[in-house]
Structures are given as C-alpha cells and as structure tokens.
Amino acid sequence: MKRWFVYFLFGTAGAAAAFLLYFWMGALSPLNGSPNPNQSEQSMPLGKAIYQAKCATCHGASGKGDGKAAPLLNPAPRDFTSGMYKIRTTESGSIPTDDDLARSITYGLYGSAMPDWGPFLHGDSLKAIIAYIKSFSPRFEKEKPRVVDISSPVPSSASSVANGKRVYAKLQCASCHGTDGKGTDATATDLIDDWGNEITAANLTEPWTFKGRSTARDIYLRFRTGMNGTPMPSYVGSASEKEMWNLANYVVSLARKPVWAMNAEELKAFYSAADAEAKKNPVERGKYLVESSCEGCHSGYSADGKVVPEFKLAGGLVFDIYPFGKFTSFNLTSDKETGLGNWTDAEIKRAITQGIQRDGSRLLPFPMPWTSIAQMPDDDVNAIIAYLRTVPPIRNEVPLPEKPNIFSYMWGKFEMLILKKQYPGYIYPLKDFSKMEHDAKGGTDGGQDSEESQNTSSGSLSTPLVVHNENPFRNDVKEVQP
Ligand code: HEC
Ligand code: HEC
Ligand code: HEC
C-alpha cells in the first residue's frame, strides 16, 4: 500500500517531510510555464503535457484525484471525472463555466494544497489545461453551465450589515459556522463531504482562508450557488436577492484583522486572548492537539488507508525500522487493560515528554516523537492528557516492540555506518481494522495475531509502505524483510 508513507509524516517533521516528499515526487520540478520537455511528451497536445507535468501528481494521471501526493492532502485533490466543482458562478449542481475554472486555477484554492498557477499558466496554456481537465468528465459534453443571474449588489452600510445579521440568523448559518462566524455554539460539527472526508465549515472571521476569495460578490455567490460536493448548501430561494446581498455585507464585516497586519500591541492582545481561551477549556485544546499530532500514528487503519472511526486513537500502526526493531503505536484510549485507563497522569506525562515507559524502560527517540513533545509548553502537554482522559475506552491490544538481538543490531549498525547501506523503513496497519468487530466494552480481538491477520485478512496489507530516503531518520532507517 503506497498510501502508508503518509503516516510517517504525521509526527513532528510533518510539514517539512511532506514538502520534501512532494519535491521528491517531482511535482514542482517543471515549474516554468512550458510543458515538460521530456522526450515523447513533446508531441503531446499542450493541455495534456501541462497536466502531466503540473497537475497529475495530485489530481492523478486519469483525473480521478488519486495522484501520488493525494493521501497527504486534506482536502483531497478534486476528482475531475465527477464534474463537481466548488467555486462557480453557476446554479447548485451545475458544471462550472470556463471562467470559473480559470479563476480557481489562476488563484488556487486558499486553505488547500491547490496552488495558484497564475504566474505560470495564462493565455493558450490556460485555455489548453481547462479544455483538458474538462475532458475527464462527460458532463461537459452533455450539459451547459447554468449561469446565475447576479442581481445588482447592495452597497455596504451599517443598516445593510445589521439587516444581514438577521438574515444570518434566519438562514441558520450559525448551525455550521457558529453564532460568531468562528464556530462558537455550532451544532453541526461532524461534517463529511461527498468524497467521504471530514470537512470543517470555514471560519468566517478569516476571509483570507476562503477558497473562492472574499469580496461581497464572492461570498454572495458561495451561498447563492452552494459549494458542490460539500455540506455548504445553496440558499437560492430561501431569501430575497436584497437579503442575500445584506448577508454578504454582514459576512464581510465579520473579518478580524489578520495577524500579519497587527502591530506589536494588537499581536500581544490577540495571543493572550487565544491563550486565555485555551486555558479556559483545556480539553478542547487537547482535542485539537491530539487530532493534529497523535491521531495519525495512534489509530487503526483500513486497508485503503483511512482511519477507522471505531479505532480512532486505539493504536495499531506498525513501524518496522531495521535494525532498531518493529514498534506498534500504543492504544491511547482509556481502556483499562489495553490502553491508558490505568496509567496515572504523571506516568503519561513522563512517557510522552521523557520517553520513560511505565515500567521504567526507555523509548527510542523514534518513532514515538517524545523529544519533540517535550518541547511543547507545559499547558499543552497537560491539555493533551486532559483530553486523552475523556476518550472512551476501546479495547485493542497492541504487541510489545520486537527488538533485534544484540548481534543483528550491531550488524545493522555496521552496515549502516560503515558500509553506508540504505534501507527503507516500513509502515503498515497491524491488520485491516475496518474488518474488525468493534466492542467498546471489550471483546475486540487483540493484536496478538498480527503476522497472521496481516497475511490473511487483507492481501493489500502484505505489501506495506516502503518509506524512502525522505523519512525523518534518513540514514538510520534500514530494511527488514516484512
Ligand atoms: C499540490 C497538489 C495539487 C496540484 C499540483 C494541483 N492541484 Fe488542483 N487541487 C488540489 C486540491 C487539494 C484541490 C481541492 C481543494 C478543495 O476541494 O478544497 C484542488 C482542486 C482543483 C480544482 C477545483 C476547483 C473547484 O472549484 O472545485 C481545479 C479546477 C484544479 N484543482 C485544477 C488544477 C490544475 C489545472 C492543476 C495543474 C495546473 C492543479 N489543479 C494542480 C491540489 C492540487
Ligand atoms: C451544513 C453546514 C453549513 C451551513 C448551514 C452553512 N455553511 Fe458555509 N460552509 C460550510 C462548509 C463545510 C464550508 C467549507 C467548504 C470547503 O472548504 O470546501 C463552508 C464555507 C463557507 C464559506 C467560505 C467559502 C469559500 O470560498 O471558501 C462562506 C463564506 C460560507 N460558508 C458562508 C455561509 C453562510 C453565509 C451560510 C448561511 C447562509 C452558510 N455558510 C451556511 C458549511 C455550512
Ligand atoms: C510518528 C508516529 C507517532 C506520533 C506522531 C505519536 N506517537 Fe506515540 N507512539 C508511537 C509508537 C510507534 C509507539 C510505540 C513505541 C514503542 O513501543 O517503543 C508510541 C507509544 C506511545 C505511548 C506509550 C509509551 C509506552 O510507554 O509504551 C504513549 C503514551 C504515546 N505514544 C502517546 C502519544 C501522544 C500523546 C502523541 C501526540 C502528542 C503521540 N504519542 C504521537 C508513534 C507515534
């Protein structure tokens, strides 16, 4: 499973390693507006050549959104075969116009990995790439874009904004975006897009993160047309045109000052307010930290590389790193027998900040990145523990690390340091967790039969990810036959 490489990057070196990997995969190499000059590609039609050089790494050679980098990305790259687009000037469900596509390609989609291609693609190249991505979906042959009749805008004013605030309440934008636009008291928080991925409603106080940009017209269009493929609905018919423009003016008025535009005093005030917020609710803060920095390694995965919700934080990802051994991520839920249920706060803290296990033995500095967790502010470490305490028990017994005997270890070190041999490491789930019976009270079978279930329960798991040189351990990583 190629996809497994991704979980290696969840740790501390995440962003940097992802970037290296992206380079390695060659997506950025031909960055100068001309198509890849490689041999046969020269004779290809322009659109296809540009696509293969610049877009295929993410969007996949056949446009299905399954390029090499795709598993790294959330939101996932668009599957062009669906003909479904978020940023449009067309009615809900309709295909976009060429101008809509040109706009997304030129400016990119803020807040996602979709880059802005404006500096590299214009004129004929832009036309060619648009024609090429349209060719992935038969919808563009059969349908015509149904363009929205944009009414004349209502200029912003205090009364328009006040009126827009009422429209915001009437249309219940708050159910997803919160009463204040930044999610406070939102009732719909577990949102999933049409491709089955988790998605968060935009923070309306940070307009620089809007994918379709943030003028009143852009915002009017987003809720007038909806964002196809996402829970963000179309409100056509639910309010008058005038009300919709007032609402757009209200959303514009919610913008806070971006950090980069703040002076020293404003910055200080901003961060101490954010700090106070975090202290007020450590569990909330801890949840955020755990989801962003522990969950990727400490969860049960399905064979196709998705966290299985019933095994979130229940451990079970194997890191096979020659000559150091084979380590399975631990069950972090509050299960008393197989998880952290019987650990004291102090024991958890000692393990994740000093690498000292419950029985006093030491953890290697990898794969469990306790050395970098040790750099976190104390409040954050406490918040992580506070949140872990609230995670309901999931029974999932993971095997102890398998460490090599001293001779194989010495030989491995010798190969590594003297012979300069390079071996990749392997990462794979202990078993296909989507096929496991789940029972929070116990009864899920443990991880004892790892070898067996790896080979029997899912064929694809027997070809684990091979982590190439871009892994954080570089020279230290060696291969061991899985
Ligand atoms: C680094 C990865 C990456 C590369 C390279 C990339 N894209 Fe994307 N693209 C994305 C992601 C991720 C999304 C989905 C963002 C979202 O749904 O919020 C996306 C979405 C899109 C969309 C959909 C816009 C909409 O309204 O829904 C278009 C069109 C698009 N890309 C065109 C291209 C073209 C053309 C290229 C090559 C010139 C390209 N992309 C290269 C990551 C990439
Ligand atoms: C059912 C949940 C839901 C409701 C209700 C909802 N939104 Fe959204 N909204 C979303 C989600 C999810 C996104 C993020 C889509 C994405 O990033 O692809 C979003 C994104 C947005 C954006 C950012 C657009 C961009 O270009 O990225 C704006 C502006 C917005 N919503 C305004 C509104 C307004 C105004 C209302 C009420 C009329 C509303 N939303 C109602 C879920 C919702
Ligand atoms: C890069 C993957 C990775 C990340 C990120 C990660 N862990 Fe781990 N963690 C592991 C592995 C693998 C083990 C098992 C190590 C072993 O058995 O030697 C482990 C073990 C543990 C243990 C048990 C230690 C023991 O004494 O056996 C705890 C507790 C733990 N991790 C908590 C966390 C927390 C909290 C976070 C997030 C702040 C986190 N981990 C992030 C991979 C990771």
Summarize the SSE layout with pairings:
Elements: H1 14-24, H2 46-59, H3 98-107, H4 123-134, H5 139-142, H6 158-170, H7 174-177, E1 191-192, E2 198-199, H8 216-225, H9 241-253, H10 264-280, H11 282-293, E3 317-321, E4 325-328, H12 345-354, H13 370-373, H14 378-390, H15 406-417, E5 425-429, H16 450-456, E6 465-467
Antiparallel strand pairs: 1-2, 3-4, 3-5, 5-6
Helix pairs in contact: 2-4, 3-4, 6-9, 8-9, 11-14, 12-14
Bound molecules: heme C (HEC) (3 copies).
The site of one heme C has 23 residues, from helix 12.
Label this structure with key terms.
binds heme C, 34% helix, 6 strands, two-stranded antiparallel ribbon, 16 helices, 482 residues, 3 domains, mainly alpha, disordered N terminus, Cytochrome Bc1 Complex, Chain D, domain 2, single chain, four-stranded antiparallel sheet, disordered C terminus
Fold and architecture overview:
There is one protein chain. By secondary structure, the chain is mainly alpha-helical. It has three domains: 31-142, Cytochrome Bc1 Complex, Chain D, domain 2, CATH 1.10.760; 158-256, Cytochrome c-like domain (Cytochrome Bc1 Complex, Chain D, domain 2, Orthogonal Bundle); 301-339 and 393-482, no CATH class. The protein contains 16 helices and six strands. The strands form two sheets. It has a four-stranded antiparallel beta sheet, with no helix packed on it. Strand 1 (191-192) and strand 2 (198-199) form a beta hairpin. Helix 3 crosses helix 4, helix 6 (158-170) packs across helix 9 and helix 11 (282-293) packs across helix 14 (378-390). The chain is globular and about 75 Å long.
